[in-house]
Amino acid sequence: MEKIFITGINGLLGTNLTFDLLEKGYSVKGLIRNKSKFEGKNHPNLELIEGNLFDDLTQILKEIDTVIHIAAETSQNIINYYDYWKINCNATNQLLNSAILCKVKKFVFVSSVNTLGYGTLNNLGTEKDEIKSPLKSSFYALSKLEAENILLKDKDKIKVIIINPSFMIGAYDTKPSSGKIILMGLKKKIIFYPPGGKNFVDVKDVSRGIISSLNKGKNGEKYIIANENISYVGFFEKLNKLENQFPIMIRVPKAILIAIGYLGDGLRFFQLKTNLSSTNMRILCIDNFYNNQKSISDLEMEYLPIEAAIKDSIEYFKKKFK
């Protein structure tokens, strides 16, 4: 029985991945700050370990075949790059070194599609495309890219596989994180949407992609796990259809979003935390689209309709907030 160690086990992806791994017969150990926060059920092949990324994990990793590193700092209101770096880079490097020391066979790093160059519908971004503006100004994206480069330098010491998921949605988004976009449109009479778009993927697909990479992934390779390239208005139209709701749809002009972003920059200058920034607002105005063909050919991925992920997310939030 292959033994897996997962960080970020209680997040959107970590929870879904744990369910899938246990169902397929893997033994799973998961790092979690508080065991009571895990929404999964007890399982004989699951062990939850309370702690954080800066703990000495070598005693645990001595029994592990594969590390799947999901945990990351993803908040968009952080002002300084260092606050991303210490979690997304420094902690990742520490975990990597511990894995090498303990002779772990594989290190799967869940990064972000935003470390790669996005494209348009006619020229989709791929694993070979380099990050570009405005994402080059995103501290989160840059920290994940730096972590990728740290890992790839040691691919001769341990098998390194990098997973680059696009915008994940689905059930068990406990914070919520990406699921906020569902809550923005659910049962609203008016929906304001930005002019851009992005690639959306079912978290279940990302989970299956990671599991497939354990056997089919190649050392030192990056794999985009992504599905439908959709405008924001197109996404909300799908949500409206599923919920049989008819809100007023209002497109927020780019100029207004950028102005709001500059206001956020001013607040950040005075060390006030806010999700608003000119970088974040510019990202909402681009077509952040990607190609998933490498995952289909190498990992044999078959993707679920994004409507299934929207439905799962809606049902989860209705139960959580009822």
UniProtKB/TrEMBL annotation:
The cellular component terms of Gene Ontology attached to this UniProt record, alphabetical and capped at eight, are: cytoplasm
- Pfam families the UniProt entry points to: Epimerase
All copies of the NAD-dependent epimerase/dehydratase domain together span: 4-226
Q: Which GO terms describe its molecular function?
A: aldehyde dehydrogenase (NAD+) activity
What protein name does the entry list?
Answer: NAD-dependent epimerase/dehydratase family protein
